[in-house]
Amino acid sequence: MLDVFMITTGSMIAAGLFVLPGIAFARTGPSVVLAYGIAALIALPTILSAAELSTAMPRAGGIYFFVSRGIGYGAGSLAGFARWLSISLKCAYALLGIGIYSYVFTGVAAKFTAVIVCLIFIFLNLAGIKLVGIAQVILTSVLICVLTYLAVGGIASINLAYFEPFSPEGFGSILSTAGFIFISYGGMLAITGLAEEVKRPRRNIPLGMILGLIFTGLIYTIVVFVIVGNLEASVLINTLTPVADTAGIAHGRIGVLLASLAALLAFVTTANAGIASASRYPLAMSRDRLLPNLLLRSHFNNGMPAVSILFTGFLILVAIIFLELEALVEIASSLLMLTYILTNLTVIILKYKVNNNYQPTFHAPLKPWLQALSIAGLLLLITQVSFMAIIVSIIFCLAAYSWYLLKAKQLPDNIIPLPPKPKNRHI
Length: 427
Known about the structure:
This protein has a single domain, classed as Amino acid/polyamine transporter I, CATH 1.20.1740. With about 425 residues, it is mostly helical. The chain has helices at about 1-10, 15-20, 20-30, 30-55, 60-70, 75-105, 110-125, 130-155, 170-180, 200-230, 235, 240-250, 255-280, 280-285, 305-320, 325-350, 370-380, 385-405.
């Protein structure tokens, strides 16, 4: 359960905290604190739905597997491709975050550093899932301790005048900002992609995921509150290192160094878990013959899907080299929200669909009303992202569904299977 909690938490705490607050503040002012809280509340029903589905179907590919079995392969194709691409883009912007923060000390271009670190994490994932889990526990534990120290110290230097006016652009800007920073919670379902490799998944996945989201939501809200209370608006709008700037005010030079260390740890944990999770989506889709069998291959005795990991790593490298930060954030956020809508819809459909093999041990509360409310909130957030991100998402959905139509005749029967037998490669 500790591994699940750390993978979930470490997958979320990254650029959403260490890079985005200043960009988000420019959109809505001090009410950015509220935007982070709203995004967490909208995310909560989805994590409850995914927890239920994971206890019934602990298989590689997570959301793709749930949606394809609950709704059908057409929707599953949308979910699988969207999840794979969105996690990969989230990894790319986490790796860019490493480059941004390390530039202060090394002077090396951010994209060059991001590419080198990406290659390191690809090899780490090829080495085995146990190593990924151990690294995640150690790094995330240090990250949480450093963030707690910085936040507690920053509370004493808060200037409440910096929160006035609280919402200069109105509630619409708060919703728009919540949609923009929603990718900050994009890692909350990372463990579902690795569900097949978790010990006691019916207990550990729901508990670890729910605790991870609650804890991360509190961390985001508290730290962003401290940031806004310490930095003048003119400074916050123009910085990509808000945590380090705040730590400098509260703790001096040692605070800046600790904040930089925390940022690097956050980006490392996100990229580490993200590559592991994203690579399981092509693997699961290839098992269903939606993608070539080549992606099932492993060239190592540890059973890692080597080709799928390398394929995912290549996509991340392309995103690092050719896409800018804000474009990465908005496109990834809109695709993530699409996969969360499909996850909630799957739980609603399975509530009324007779299937003796669907036997979750955890049941999402208040079905189907909580899921319906989450879908409405996610649709509202999608309308608030940029026009470019919406167009890209529509084109992506059309392409993914067209691919499904080409492969439809090759797909196996759509049957919800019983949970798999335990395997040796557990985290």
